[in-house]
Design brief:
The complex is a heterodimer of chains A (277) and B (294). Chain A has 277 residues and is mainly α. Helix content of chain A is 74%, strand content 0%. Chain A has ten helices and no strands. Chain A is flat. Chain B is built from nine helices and ten strands. In chain B, a hairpin with a 2-residue loop joins strand 4 and strand 5. The N terminus and C terminus of chain B are likely disordered. Classes of the chains: A mainly alpha (277), B alpha/beta (294).
Chain lengths: 277, 294
């Protein structure tokens, strides 16, 4: 998971051909849309012309139809799953940052937490869902929020810990020379240094939070969320509707990702620049 | 004074070449040893070092790698503590002097905070020590003017050249008008032309502020050009081999050090003197021929 913890480095590709920035931006937006449309076209073609059974693969048109028809229920489901994911993401991130701060400060704490976090990183956290459901009752969303929190915790913790260790010796010397208090060092040096790492951790965690909150719904508990609706629809052979809920899940995941990405941009007005300045 | 009189032994202190001294010494190092404990065993970084720097005096520490010159500067800055002996700065313990912010410091790497603008970087020490915002910004403007970067106040460090970054670091070191400036090879990473320009600027700035400077370098011409006295150190264990007072031209005052000085006979004589001291007193290739270009 640490492999994904990248510092935002200027994205310069010396090998790439020269394009004007505007062409490049246009291409970046247009290319994926074009690919998406082509795939949808082939899909629709397979179903309506080649005659792949609706049972195996509902056509995009029928999925959109279902999406519109069930919009109120889809919106409600998105809200439930969205809130679970958000609560999980926030709690998991706060815990991750706090524990990473403690681990960075005290070596013993680091050594105690390392195996625990390693274990958390390899356990399929969603597998805890049935256990948590029976622990906290079948009518509680708590189990799902706890799962989303656990899933978010790991990348935030790992990235933050790495971030806290990035302060340069020359900066630490300077802080000592200025006789800065430990609070001042944290505010002026340690947190700003760790900031890109923390934000990257949160961005990775945002997708994980949505996925785990959603998948946790497959294992029982209160109905109404996206995951529960997908499994219900699929169980009653309403495949197009199930797909409509899947589309809603993708939208929700994207929303979380984009919001955290926006947060990253907002809190880092001076990321190393691209291109000419 | 002739050259020969400057060939003094390791125990030499308070050189005759020092400028007229005010009562208070800026730095007093006496009987200092520094031993680093490493896995491979003890490393004697410094052994029985005695040195005093008068207020307003410019002293360079020069020597090969591993001679402990940076360590000595770090002891004065209280970034490390001596194993034996004492370091006082303006008649206080080094630690007290650090807590009282008696010195400004600059390192080989500029060490600017990349997420802060140039002016915000210069403001760091002022901010940490609670200088009011209005006083802070006027002081920062003044400092940037002094180092010739007033037009770059709102730029970020990664938009500046290495020399400009180093000038920001020097402005930051001067922010609180310290009476002592500690510099650890601040121009070490710069190209020769920028380096000479920065040296000239440093001479001007230190003359303007009247601060004492302890300057670590491994460049002989740099040490000669800048200093009132050059402390020549030898490695393993780090010791002061000799302290060479500089006598440059008729007017030894710092303000008189200009680019022309670099081409004067006296300059080359001093370079040779330091060079011989570095090589353990044995005469080396005479004149300017064998001079290192850095």
């Amino acid at each position: 998971m640490t492999a994904t913890a990248s510092v935002p480095v200027g994205d310069r590709r010396p090998g790439s051909r020269r394009m004007s920035p505007r062409t490049e931006t246009t291409l970046r937006v247009v290319a994926p849309i074009a690919v998406g449309l082509i795939v949808l076209g082939i899909w629709q073609f397979l179903v309506s012309v080649v005659g792949v059974s609706d049972y195996l693969l509902p056509s995009p048109a029928s999925i959109i139809e279902e999406f519109i028809a069930y919009w109120p229920s889809i919106a409600a489901a998105m809200l439930i799953t969205g809130i679970n994911s958000l609560v999980g993401l926030i709690v998991g991130s706060i815990l991750g940052i706090l524990l990473a701060a403690l681990a960075a400060r005290w070596r013993a704490m680091d050594q105690m937490s390392a195996p625990l976090v390693a274990a958390l990183a390899v356990i399929p956290i969603v597998a805890l869902a049935p256990v948590l459901n029976s622990m906290f009752g079948a009518d509680s969303q708590f189990g799902r929020q706890a799962i989303a929190a656990l899933a978010s915790f790991v990348p935030v913790f790992l990235n933050t810990l790495r971030g806290f260790r990035q302060t340069q010796p020359v900066h630490r010397d300077l802080m000592k020379a200025y006789a800065a208090t430990s609070g001042q060092v944290l505010r002026t040096l340690t947190l700003p240094t760790a900031r890109p790492f923390i934000l990257t951790g949160i961005r990775i965690a945002s997708s994980l939070a949505v996925i785990s909150a959603l998948v946790a719904e497959y294992f029982g508990g209160p109905r109404g969320g996206l995951g529960a609706q997908i499994s219900t629809s699929a169980a009653s052979s309403a495949y197009a509707r199930a797909w409509a809920y899947v589309v809603a899940s993708i939208v929700l995941g994207l929303l979380f990702y984009l919001v955290t990405l926006g947060l990253e941009r907002l809190l880092q007005p001076h990321a190393p620049r691209r291109g000419p300045r | 004074m002739s050259l020969h009189e400057s060939q003094t032994g390791p125990g030499f202190r308070d050189g005759a070449g020092a400028p007229p001294q005010p009562a208070e010494a800026a730095v007093e190092v006496s009987g200092v040893d520094k031993v680093f404990q490493t896995r491979a065993g003890d490393v004697h970084a410094l052994e029985s070092v005695d040195l005093s720097v008068a207020a307003g005096e410019f002293v360079s520490l020069i020597g090969p790698s591993g001679c402990g010159k940076s360590t000595l500067m770090r002891l004065i800055a209280d970034l490390d503590e001596p194993s034996v002996g004492s370091v006082t700065v303006f008649e206080k313990s080094a630690k007290q002097a650090r807590l009282d912010q008696e010195y400004g410091i600059a390192f080989q790497s500029a060490g600017l905070l990349p997420w802060r603008t140039v002016s915000a970087n210069v403001a760091v020490p002022l901010e940490l020590h609670g200088v009011a915002s209005a006083a802070r910004s006027s002081r920062v403007a003044e400092l940037l003017e002094m180092v010739g970067l007033a037009d770059f106040a709102d730029r970020y460090p990664d938009q500046l050249s290495g020399g400009m970054q180093q000038r920001v670091a020097i402005a930051r070191a001067l922010a609180e008008q310290p009476r002592l400036l500690l510099m650890d090879e601040p121009f070490g990473a710069l190209d020769e032309m920028t380096r000479e320009k920065m040296q000239t600027e440093l001479v001007r700035i230190s003359a303007e502020t009247g601060a004492a400077v302890v300057f670590v370098t491994h460049s002989i011409p740099e040490a000669v050009f800048l200093s009132d006295r050059v402390v020549v150190m030898s490695p393993r264990p780090g010791r002061i081999r000799e302290i060479v007072p500089m006598r440059l031209g008729a007017d030894a005052r710092r303000a008189a050090r200009t680019e022309e000085l670099r081409e004067e006979r006296a300059f080359f004589d001093m370079v040779t003197a330091v060079r011989e001291a570095l090589h353990g007193g044995s005469p080396v290739a005479s004149g300017a021929r064998g001079v290192e270009t850095r």
